[in-house]
Amino acid sequence: MDAPTRTPAAVTRARSVERLVTGMPTSDGAGVKLVRVLTHDLQRRLDPFLMLDAFGTDNPDDYIAGFPDHPHRGFETVTYMLEGRMRHRDSAGHEGLLGPGGVQWMTAGRGVIHSELPEQQQGRMEGFQLWLNLHSKDKMREPWYRDIAASEIPQFGTDEGATVRVIAGDSHGVAGAMQRETTEPLYLDLQLAPGARFAQPLAAAHNAFVYVYRGQLAIEGQAVPAQRMAILANTPGSDGVVLAAGPTGARALLIAGRPLGEPIAQYGPFVMNTHDEIFRAVEDFRAGRLA
Ligand code: CO
């Protein structure tokens, strides 16, 4: 793929780390082992993001059962695969195979029932699922879905040793594969060479976090080791973040978005604004009206 080299973005008042978070090992679906990095208690702090799961294993027992049919309403799911293959099918008639480096962006809207099942018996399965909330006016919109192949995700390099895949939003003048109004999500996958530096402008009011999944990096002198999420402070007047890779380099996700500032009511796979709306979602699901 064409990977132009970009000059560094100017960040003069960088955000610091407010807090380091260690994910919670858990299992979901039919017994898929994963680490819940962004947990329920951080939903308000990291509005509009509701959840981030990281999965990564060489053992098929940890993933083979997958995620059989289950519903969603009221938000979007963004699945990013680093390794392995997952087959998706939903009640709106969509089907797709998610492969290494690919992204599946699904807007559940008023409701879908879908399955996410591994399309392999062995080998490594690694990736992430992010849940992005929808504004109240969009929660009951028609479901939508897009499979984004690895080759469709814009990528660029910098002369400071960063390789950047722009899944959503905009970085160094490169438009990502997805753009979203209202929450304006930024979703970058960063590969930093040993000692590399990467600067990304961010609006101070946007909530932002960095999840390091290989190696180590530092943010304003604060070390962020692998398997840790750094929540970035919303320092008034700040204009971005600067990441500095450690001696072995780093791979990390940088995710940011504009908070919705609305009430969040969640019951499992339904995320609405009020308990009444949740009650209706459960009723609709039970009555077969959701999909
Ligand atoms: Co799902």
Overview of the structural elements:
The structure is a single chain. The protein is mostly beta strands and 291 residues long. The chain has one helix and 25 strands. The radius of gyration is 18 Å and the shape is globular. The termini are far apart. It binds cobalt (II) ion.
How would you briefly describe this protein structure?
This protein is mainly beta. The chain is built from one helix and 25 strands.
The number of helical elements comes to: 1
Termini separation comes to: 38 Å
Strand content: over 45%
Mean pLDDT: 95
**Which runs of at least 5 residues are low in confidence (pLDDT < 50)?**
none
Q: Which H/E pattern describes the elements?
A: EEEEEEEEEEEEEEEEEEEEEEEEEH
How big is the Rg? 18 Å
- Give the biggest sheet: 10 strands, mixed
Count all strands and give the number: 25
Assign an overall shape. Answer: globular
Q: Structural class, please?
A: mainly beta
Task: Name the hetero compounds present.
Answer: cobalt (II) ion
Give helix % range: under 10%
